[in-house]
């Protein structure tokens, strides 16, 4: 009786969290004789480069790996005998899997490798909580303590569904202050939050941690965004007595029709782009969270139409004035947003962030920056 080889998903679930690459490589070599090698490339924190896991001293991902990471489409390179596949979980781009062969890659082999790549991506995402190996690959320098707190708090880098695509980026990656974003998908509701914490360094990170966890606590108890804002405001005020606050924009998007409820508690700003036209979402600002005790908030509403792109930015983006230049949000932000028209959100946030860096030129940013981009597809 012939014993069938174990499914790669079963092998990965049984493997130690730090040995997933080696287990996946051994499985491919055993089940596909044409396979001669494998490497996993993970994105760095700035989403600008890809770094090897199995051979950490090896060369970073090159043009082909970057192409697959950006397009999210598998690629068979006949010249080099390689197959490259995106490693993505629920729209969150982790990196790229490179499989080396001793023969040209046939189309059916590319299709066959898609399943193991997807299983490996899910396993890598789950293993991040139990090993530092993959974090060490993604970090190209040491994080400040504030940045360590902020990265541990983030939900992910991107998220996708049938009706929407979503991505966020936070910089500077290795030395953050108090800016942050959060999101959660439950049924037909997508909750999105962008925060700009008062102060800098670890104190700002601790302030943001209190606010984010208070909102999560309320949200996970079934509270709406008004109750989330009020609980977070009370939590911040009880800790700081009004000396520190968190400017916050909370959005709850109905994924059945694109209706949006918003609580605008401060400085994050929202814009909607549609077929080249860009407009600001005008909301009445209420007091930042934690400024006063017993703070109360109200919702406002706006509507997303099919094909709309919603961009939410912190004041480190829209209010940036490097070397006395006009605010970035006055016109430069609009120009950068227009250049993203044909890009998915995961690429668009990088384009806008790079344009912000160029706007600063040689001037060190005075604040950190958050950009969140949502495409409403339905």
Automatic annotation (TrEMBL):
Entry annotated with the keyword Transcription: no
SUPFAM superfamilies hit by this protein: PP2C-like (SSF81606)
Domain PPM-type phosphatase: 161-376
GO molecular function ontology, one term from the record: phosphatase activity
Keywords assigned: Hydrolase
Source organism superkingdom: Bacteria
Chain segments annotated as coiled-coil in the UniProt record: none
InterPro entries: Bact_Sigma-Reg, PPM-type-like_dom_sf, PPM-type_phosphatase-like_dom
Entry annotated with the keyword Secreted: no
Entry-linked PANTHER family: STAGE II SPORULATION PROTEIN E, STAGE II SPORULATION PROTEIN E-RELATED
Designated name of the protein: Serine phosphatase RsbU, regulator of sigma subunit
């Amino acid at each position: 009786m012939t014993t069938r080889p174990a499914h790669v998903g079963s092998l990965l679930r049984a493997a130690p969290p730090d040995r997933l690459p080696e287990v996946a490589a051994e499985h491919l070599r055993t089940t596909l004789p044409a396979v001669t090698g494998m490497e996993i490339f993970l994105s760095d924190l700035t989403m600008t480069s890809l770094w090897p896991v199995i051979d950490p001293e090896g060369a970073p991902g090159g043009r082909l790996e970057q192409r697959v990471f950006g397009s999210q489409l598998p690629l068979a390179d006949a010249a080099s005998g390689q197959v490259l596949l995106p490693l993505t979980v629920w729209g969150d781009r982790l990196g790229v899997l490179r499989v080396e062969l001793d023969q040209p890659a046939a189309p059916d082999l590319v299709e066959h490798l898609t399943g193991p790549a997807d299983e490996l991506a899910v396993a890598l995402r789950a293993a991040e909580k139990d090993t530092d190996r993959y974090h060490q690959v993604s970090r190209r320098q040491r994080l400040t303590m504030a940045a360590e707190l902020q990265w541990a708090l983030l939900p992910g880098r991107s998220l996708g569904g049938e009706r929407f695509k979503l991505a966020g980026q936070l910089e500077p990656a290795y030395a953050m202050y108090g800016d942050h974003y959060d999101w959660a998908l439950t049924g037909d509701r997508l909750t999105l939050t962008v925060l700009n914490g008062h102060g800098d360094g670890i104190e700002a990170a601790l302030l943001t941690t209190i606010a984010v966890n208070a909102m999560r606590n309320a949200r996970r108890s079934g509270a709406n965004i008004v109750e989330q804002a009020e609980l977070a405001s009370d939590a911040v005020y009880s800790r700081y007595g009004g000396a520190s606050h968190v400017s916050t924009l909370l959005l709850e998007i109905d994924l059945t029709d694109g209706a949006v409820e918003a609580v605008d508690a401060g400085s994050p700003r929202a814009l909607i782009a549609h077929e080249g036209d860009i407009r600001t979402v005008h909301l009445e600002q209420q007091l930042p969270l934690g400024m006063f005790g017993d703070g109360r908030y109200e919702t406002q509403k706006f509507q997303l139409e099919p094909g709309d792109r919603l961009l939410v930015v912190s004041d480190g983006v829209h209010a940036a004035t490097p070397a006395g230049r006009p605010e970035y949000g006055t016109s430069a932000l609009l120009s950068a947003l227009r250049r993203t028209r044909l890009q998915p959100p995961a690429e668009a946030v990088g384009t806008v962030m790079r344009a912000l860096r160029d706007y600063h030129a040689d001037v060190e940013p005075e604040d950190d920056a958050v950009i969140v981009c949502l495409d409403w597809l339905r």
